[in-house]
Amino acid sequence: MEPSRPSSRNAIGVLILIFGLMLYAFGAAAIGDLINDWHVAIQFIYYAIAGILWIFPVRRLFLWMAQSKNRSNGGQTE
């Protein structure tokens, strides 16, 4: 078996991941600043939701990045 070459999807995905999560974190923090004076329970709910929401787009990004590996080995898992 020959070593697999990294696909361009991986490089693009890593860049999207780095900049996307950075933008998401800055946005969540900016909104957190706006709700700073609100009740602690509402702040907790916001931060709990904001702390979980990023998972869904990142999961889709990882699945997209993994598609290139599946195509290169005929769709078989290793």
UniProtKB/TrEMBL annotation:
Keywords: Membrane, Transmembrane, Transmembrane helix. InterPro entries: DUF2842. It comes from the Bacteria. The chain crosses the membrane at residues 12-32, 44-62. It holds the Pfam family DUF2842. This is DUF2842 domain-containing protein. The lineage of its organism: Bacteria, Pseudomonadati, Pseudomonadota, Alphaproteobacteria, Kordiimonadales.
